[in-house]
Design brief:
Elements lengths: L1 E3 L5 E2 L2 E2 L22 E4 L2 E3 L25 E3 L2 E3 L19 E3 L2 E3 L1 H7 L16 E3 L2 E3 L19 E3 L2 E3 L1 H12 L2 E2 L6 E2 L4 E3 L2 E3 L18 E3 L2 E3 L1 H6 L17 E3 L2 E3 L19 E3 L2 E3 L1 H8 L15 E3 L2 E3 L19 E4 L2 E4 H4 L4 H12 L4
Antiparallel strand pairs: 1-4, 2-3, 4-5, 6-7, 8-9, 10-11, 12-13, 14-15, 16-17, 18-19, 20-21, 22-23, 24-25, 26-27
């Protein structure tokens, strides 16, 4: 074994070996500063600190007896198992897993505490690929659009009012702030008219009429999942509203011999939509129950016609005298006839006496309480 002072031939600020190449330590595989000594033996070079017995423990410098002791071998260096420990907590590495940083080895926990960033969403340490965004760190799987939850790690994002959004959601947010729509196809703001297809909004010029092929305008209509220009749509047998004279694309109300949009079929007096409630017709017009009574008198509860003469009033309803009868036997009653109430309908005394005694008691009690 030979040792010598630093060699004078240099490449930059590093020493050169005997053959003129850059000198690399045989053990640690690092170069030599110009001021360092080199140990040269058999054509190989070492740092003096590295030129030790091949079985000498790197930590305690005690030679390891291979016949009797176990050893840990890493990058050409050896350690006693009890010497190969975390540089922070000095404990053995669980299951042999460790992380190396700037020449020091750490167990997983200490490496994460010292160097690994925490994910802003899940709070766990980020090992591997780290997404740096919004002045914090994220797992790629945790970095999502805050509106639609689309993953952003590989598609990029736009910062909007402190939120990370995908480009589509950002365009929608900008449009909603201006009161405009965003095209579902090109994701640009629609400045003028729009069309709808299956609930989504588009620029009209993205489509042509499914019938005649002309480029569509904002007055295009959807029928059976297809877009038609207004002329082709009207030719397709679409019902026309009796009020606004526009095509009816959704639910249709059939009344008074015409078709109507639900919101356009209204009382002729108060102009409120019926929305499925009962209406009354007179001279080609529809009325709600209240205004029909106000304008044209009382309606019989049975025949639903205006009562022309005297009105029989009972159970908070109006009846033609010949229609006020027992709901069980159809025997005609009068306002002076004793009757009982069952399911908000009159029952004569004769039928009442045929009911079970328990039912009679309940009905009689209700009648005595003024509910009949």
């Amino acid at each position: 074994m030979q040792s010598g002072t630093a060699m004078h031939s240099m490449s930059g600020d590093m020493q050169l070996g005997p053959d003129g190449s850059l000198a690399i330590c045989t053990r640690c595989h690092e170069g030599f500063d110009v001021t360092e000594k080199i140990v040269n033996s058999g054509g190989d070079v070492w740092h003096p600190r590295c030129f030790v017995s091949p079985n000498q423990c790197t930590h305690c410098n005690v030679v390891i007896d291979q016949m009797k002791e176990q050893m840990v071998n890493y990058k050409g260096r050896v350690w006693h198992p009890q010497c190969f420990v975390c540089a922070q907590c000095f404990q053995p590495f669980p299951e042999g897993v460790f992380y190396e940083f700037e020449g020091r080895k750490y167990c997983e926990h200490d490496f994460q505490v010292l160097y690994a960033p925490c994910c802003n969403k899940c709070g766990e340490f980020v090992i591997g690929r780290v997404i740096k965004a919004m002045n914090t760190s994220w797992h790629p799987s945790c970095f999502h659009c805050q509106l639609c939850d689309a993953p952003l790690a590989d598609i990029g994002f736009v910062k909007n009012m402190g939120r990370a959004l995908c480009r589509e959601c950002n365009a929608k947010e900008k449009a909603s702030g201006s009161g405009k729509y965003v095209c579902h196809k090109c994701h640009a703001i629609i400045d003028e008219g729009h069309i709808k297809l299956k609930g989504d909004v588009y620029h009209p010029y993205h489509f042509s009429c499914a019938s005649c092929g002309t480029e569509l305008t904002p007055d295009a209509r959807e029928k059976n999942g297809e877009l038609l220009c207004l002329r082709c749509h009207d030719k397709a047998g679409v019902p026309i509203c009796g009020a606004c004279r526009r095509p009816i694309e959704g639910r249709v109300i059939n009344a008074l011999g015409k078709t109507w949009h639900p919101e356009h079929f209204v009382c002729a007096k108060c102009e409120k939509p019926f929305h499925g409630s009962r209406h009354y017709e007179r001279r080609g017009l529809a009325y709600c129950e209240n205004h029909y009574h106000q304008l044209f008198g009382d309606l019989c509860f049975v025949c639903n016609n205006v009562i022309p003469g005297d009105v029989c009033r009972a159970l908070n309803k109006c009846w033609c005298f010949n229609h006020f009868s027992c709901s069980a036997c159809d025997r005609q009653l009068s306002e002076k006839t004793k009757f009982f109430v069952m399911d908000v309908k009159p029952v004569c005394k004769h039928c009442f006496e045929k009911f079970p005694s328990e039912l009679q008691k309940r009905l009689k009690k209700a009648s005595d309480a003024g509910l009949g």
